[in-house]
Amino acid sequence: MRTVVFDLDGTLADTSGDLIAAANACFEARGQGRPLDAVADQLTAFAGGRAMLRLGAGRLGLGWDEGDIDAQYPVLLAEYGRAIAVHTRLYPGAVRSVEGLRGAGFATAICTNKPEGLAVQLVAALGISDLFGALLGADSLPVRKPDPEHYFETVRRAGGLPARSLLIGDTVTDRDTARAAGVPIILVGFGPEGAGVSRLEPDAILDDYDGLMGVIDRLLPG
Fold first, then answer.
1. What number is the average pLDDT over the span 129-135?
2. What digits encode the pLDDT tens for the residues 107-118?
3. CA 123, CA 15: separation in Å to the nearest integer?
4. 146 phi and psi, to 5 degrees?
5. Which PANTHER family match (predicted)?
6. Is the CATH number 3.40.140.10 carried by domain 3-14+89-219?
7. In this structure, is the dihedral angle defined by the CA atoms of residues 117, 57, 34 and 190, taken in order, positive or negative?
8. What is the per-residue pLDDT across 158-180, written as a single tens digit (0 to 9) for each?
9. Which end of the chain has fewer CB atoms at under 10 Å, N or C?
10. Is 18 a catalytic residue?
C-alpha cells in the first residue's frame, strides 16, 4: 500500500491568519498593539509561534531574549486554541484530492510540527479528521521533523511502509525531512512563498491539488 503524508499548515490549509491573530493577541494583552500583519507576515507564521513572537518583539523594540519568547509561547498557544479556525481555510481541491487517494487505495496521514492537541483540534474544526489514518504532531514523539523518525512513525501508524511513501509539504523543514527519510518530496507552489519553493529543489512542485494524482504516480509508481 502506498502512503501519502501531508504537512498541515501551509500545505493542506492556510492557517496563517489565525496564527498571526494569536501572536498579536499576546502583544495586545500587554498593551503593546498588534505588530504583525496577516498578509505581509504569512511566511513567518508558517515558521512557528516563536518566530512570530521574535518578529513582533523586534518591531516593537522590546529587547526580548529567548527566555521572554519561551514565557510568551504558552500564551500564544492558548490564544490560538481559543480561535483556531476563524480565518483558516483548506486550500482548493485538498479534500477532493485526499478523498481520491483513499478511494484509490492509498493510506493518508498528517505529520506536522504543530502540537498534536492543536492539530487534532484543527482538523476536527475543518471536518477532515476521518480523511487521515494517522496524525502526529510536534510533541507526539521525543523527536519531530526534520528528524526522519517522526515521518517514519507517521507512515507506520497509517499502516504503510516508508519505502512506499512520500511527503507533501511547503517548507525547508519538509524538504529536509524527506531527504533524511530517503523518500520523495512534493512542495506546494500555492502557499505564501509561491514558486519560490523551487529554490529548495523538491522532486516536484504542486501547482494545485487537481494535479496531485499525476505527480504521485510519477514519483511513487503503483
1. 98
2. 999 999 999 999
3. 11
4. -90, 15
5. PHOSPHOGLYCOLATE PHOSPHATASE
6. no
7. negative
8. 999 999 999 999 999 999 999 99
9. C
10. no
